[in-house]
Backbone:
């Protein structure tokens, strides 16, 4: 598997008056955590067990496509702008951070009957493939979709380092 997901699953902020909307929410969170952990071992597991979050976590959906000369990653970030997101490469990992702010307008006499939109901070960390050119990365944000393009290296440098032996 080329892009290994190194994101940490942690509780993130939803709306301020959030309570578990369903009695099975804790079980749901635990099953998501297990599926995410084993998803890196069994390819496709996370995708096959993906269901809507019940606990208020905000984790943008991610598509990764490989073409002959580059990789293209797309994250759905509806309601966000480019200023709400940061992208960096550290230790051969692509870090994508952001925060989707909640519209905290509260009107007297207003009662919420359903709140399905998610808010809060998110972090996606992906281990880059060996042929990713870390100096040739571009990003574009349009219509709520962040697109990151990573060019491939023509001849990736081997990751073997010879160690001299004393004596």
Residues:
């Amino acid at each position: 598997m080329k892009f290994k997901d190194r994101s940490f699953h942690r509780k993130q902020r939803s709306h301020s008056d959030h309570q578990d909307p369903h009695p099975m929410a804790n079980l749901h969170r635990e099953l998501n955590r297990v599926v995410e952990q084993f998803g890196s071992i069994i390819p496709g597991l996370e995708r096959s067990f993906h269901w809507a979050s019940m606990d208020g976590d905000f984790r943008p959906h991610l598509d990764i496509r490989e073409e002959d000369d580059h990789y293209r990653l797309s994250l759905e970030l509806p309601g966000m702008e480019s200023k709400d997101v940061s992208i960096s490469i550290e230790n051969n990992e692509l870090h994508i951070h952001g925060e989707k702010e909640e519209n905290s307008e509260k009107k007297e006499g207003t009662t919420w009957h359903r709140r399905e939109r998610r808010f809060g901070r998110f972090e996606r960390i992906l281990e880059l493939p060996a042929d990713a050119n870390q100096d040739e990365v571009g990003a574009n944000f349009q219509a709520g979709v962040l697109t990151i393009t990573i060019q491939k290296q023509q001849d990736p440098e081997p990751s073997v380092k010879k160690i001299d032996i004393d004596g």
Residues 25-39 form the longest helix (15 residues). The CA atoms of residues 35 and 46 lie 6 Å apart. Confidence is low (pLDDT under 50) at residues 9-19, 45-56.
